[in-house]
Task: structure prediction
Amino acid sequence: MSPRRRGLSIGSVLERLRGDFPDLTISKIRFLEAQGLVTPHRAASGYRQFSEADVDRLRYVLTAQRERFWPLKVIRDALDALDRGLTPNEDQVDARPSVPRPAADPDVPDPEALGAPATLRLTASELGEAAGLDSATLAALQGFGLLHAGPSGHYDSDALAVARAAAALAAYGVEARHLRSFRTAADREVGLVRQIVIPALAVRGRARTEADVDPTHDVLHQCVALHVALVRAELSR
Result:
């Protein structure tokens, strides 16, 4: 057995959960697995190996059934929202999940800069709703290279930050086509960061210590700080 996974047996999971859910049976756990609500690892022998995350997931499902009377489809949608970094609406069954409030971005030296959980995965409609943009504007932002969906077709926290910034600028009459220069400038800065970081990583790889600072993070931080300082200086003239 791989040392990475030493999961719980289905019997152990039943013991864990039966205190809160006395009517729970092994057959019920197998049924929830068959419905795709939990996917325990299978050992080479074929036995199920449940992780702590699987136990928490089962607890969520069982609680939703008992206390909220949610059907399996609603529970499945709520789990999908949780997996994508969203917050399911537990008061209204048919309500859309909400996007978490943005937190400070440590890579941007501006306390008002916005970021979001790295695990966030939004559909186009969720992105538009969270940013306050219509589908035409989102399509324009994508057409001008400012927004990119991932391989799964979802948008991440960086896309959300771009969309929210574009929405804020749209309130001043700035259209998507006016933002192409930002895309061009960003591409140039990325090229510069790579020119600096690749040699630094090579040196760091030869003589790495615990006190080393990640050069990628540090160079990015300094580039953004420089950009903010230059813009602020010009605006104050």
Notes: Residues 109-116 have pLDDT under 50 and may be disordered. The longest strand covers residues 41-42. Residues 181-236 form one domain.
